[in-house]
Design brief:
The protein contains two helices and no strands. By secondary structure, it is mostly helical.
Length: 60
């Protein structure tokens, strides 16, 4: 079954939107990292053996 032109257009529009949102998120994270702030605002209640980068990696 061949995709219709409408389906192809919607696919590429969705792909472009996902790439734009990913770029915005990564740029905001990079800006926070370069300013020395916590990239992932994660504060555990008690000491844990992982940090913000580990939480971000699991979330992605």
């Amino acid at each position: 079954m061949e995709p219709t032109p409408t389906q192809l257009v919607l696919f590429f529009v969705g792909l472009a939107g996902a790439l734009v949102l990913s770029g915005v998120l990564l740029s905001r994270l990079w800006k926070q990292y370069s300013e020395g702030r916590d990239v992932v605002p994660y504060r555990p209640r008690r000491p844990v053996p992982w940090g913000g980068w580990d939480v971000l990696a699991v979330g992605v």
